[in-house]
Design a protein that fits this description.
This protein is of the alpha/beta class and 220 residues long. The chain is 37% helix and 22% strand.
């Protein structure tokens, strides 16, 4: 809303969850912000059987399909930048469920392309190559958000992921929601808006030579 061509907008690249598609973006952005960001969403590459028995798109962690997912994300960034004024150093990845896990994998393996990453109900991806670019990845801001009653990503696993990222030297913010299972709540998306704006303000302070805001690392 009220797009200003002269202003370089932060970009959110949203990865939908299993049983979803790129149109999920149309439902979540009114709950994040219609003014503060440009947002774009690729469709998942894996045609998987959904929980309802129908077919839907998802995000596989196989090596080949991870490369395809990366390409779709980068194509979305290029497309958005061709159509609108995007700040290329303020591109954020975010996703739900499988999309959150894929967002973490892509951001952690190619951190130079992103300013931060957020996963809703999506566990940290596994694999030795995930932190292969650790020194560069530590500059990423990370937001983990999960429901306390999520049967697929339980609190014990959330704490394990938090400890791993904390031990690796990341700046992590954790948000847990109760009562909440595996779902996107309006409060989650409002918190995403606040987290992004704090991060953007921090980057702006850094660019102008002032002291940038430091995100606290949360002790497990």
């Amino acid at each position: 809303m009220h797009y200003e061509p002269g202003y370089p907008y932060p970009l959110i690249v949203w990865l939908h969850g299993r049983d979803g598609n790129e149109r999920q973006l149309q439902r979540i952005m009114p709950l994040v912000s219609m003014r503060n960001f440009v947002a774009v969403a690729p469709r998942g590459l894996q045609l998987a059987e959904s929980t309802s028995g129908a077919e839907s798109f998802g995000w596989s962690q196989s090596e080949e399909l991870v490369l395809h997912a990366e390409q779709r994300v980068f194509d979305c960034v290029t497309l958005a930048s061709q159509r609108l004024h995007i700040h290329r150093e303020r591109v954020f990845l975010a996703g739900f469920g499988d999309g959150g896990t894929m967002a973490l994998r892509i951001a952690l393996t190619q951190p130079e392309r992103f300013a931060g990453v957020c996963s809703f109900c999506g566990p940290l991806p596994r694999g030795s190559a995930m932190l292969g670019n650790l020194s560069a990845a530590r500059r990423l801001a990370v937001l983990l958000a999960a429901g306390c009653e999520d049967p697929i990503y339980p609190a014990a696993e959330v704490c394990h992921d938090l400890r791993l990222l904390y031990a690796a030297g990341f700046s992590v913010m954790l948000r847990q929601y109760y009562p909440c299972r595996r779902e996107l709540l309006p409060e989650m998306l409002a918190d995403l808006n606040r987290w992004l704006m704090r991060r953007i303000t921090s980057l702006s302070n850094f660019d102008s030579g002032t002291n940038a805001e430091k995100f606290s690392r949360i002790e497990p």
